[in-house]
């Protein structure tokens, strides 16, 4: 069983913008503190065998300049690697390229924080329809998988799979994640009614309840 509300509340979410050479990009950032140290957290998010336990099976050359591919999902190139502080990579999916930056830092109590920022030049119509939850819910699911993996001493987290995502518990997780991204969207300055409509459409799309 997943303590849905506790996991949702353990994550910080932020929506913003970043100016790149090609123009202004949208950013969606998540972060969570885990009951482990930075070195173990780095190993969990960069070792193919461990990534496959909590996220998706990954193949490729997991080093600076190498190409990676997540089974049934994105692929990309590792553009920066600074162990155990973080890495950045392209995120290529559906014919579009965006970027992820992963940052790890120690907490004063000996635990470690992971922060992931997804940076994308998004189609204004797509952003206007779905908003930050479109990628945010997926990253929330990833942080859940990592939390389960670390709390189980490195064991796989079956709750993070697609079957769980469509269970009653999984749908409730998606709903609460979408609501949390709605609040982050509003905090970024978005109109409340626009943010509400975006969140509702995205939650419906993830849970299979869209008409």
TrEMBL record:
Q: Which InterPro entries match?
A: ASHA1/2-like_C, START-like_dom_sf
Under SUPFAM superfamilies, the record lists: Bet v1-like (SSF55961)
Source organism's superkingdom? Bacteria
Q: Per the database record, which ranges form the Activator of Hsp90 ATPase homologue 1/2-like C-terminal domain? A: 36-141
Q: Which family does it belong to?
A: Belongs to the AHA1 family.
What name is this protein filed under? Answer: SRPBCC family protein
| Species of provenance | Actinomadura livida
């Amino acid at each position: 069983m997943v303590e849905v509300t506790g996991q949702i509340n353990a994550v910080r979410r932020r929506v913003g913008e970043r100016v790149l050479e090609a123009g202004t990009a949208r950013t969606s950032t998540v972060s969570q503190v885990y009951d482990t140290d930075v070195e173990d957290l780095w190993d969990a998010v960069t070792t193919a065998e461990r990534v496959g336990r909590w996220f998706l099976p990954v193949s490729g050359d997991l080093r600076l300049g190498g190409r990676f591919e997540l089974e049934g999902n994105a692929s990309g190139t590792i553009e920066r690697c600074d162990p155990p502080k973080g890495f950045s990579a392209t995120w290529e999916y559906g014919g579009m390229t965006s970027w992820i930056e992963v940052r790890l830092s120690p907490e004063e109590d000996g635990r470690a924080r992971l922060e992931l920022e997804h940076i994308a030049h998004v189609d204004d119509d797509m952003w206007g329809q779905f908003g930050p939850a479109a990628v945010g819910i997926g990253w929330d699911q990833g942080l859940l998988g990592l939390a389960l993996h670390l709390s189980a001493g490195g064991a796989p987290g079956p709750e993070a799979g697609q079957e769980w995502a469509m269970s009653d518990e999984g749908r409730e997780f998606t709903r609460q994640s979408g609501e949390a991204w709605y609040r982050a969207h509003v905090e970024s300055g978005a109109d409340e009614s626009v943010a509400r409509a975006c969140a509702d459409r995205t939650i419906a799309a993830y849970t299979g309840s869209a008409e």
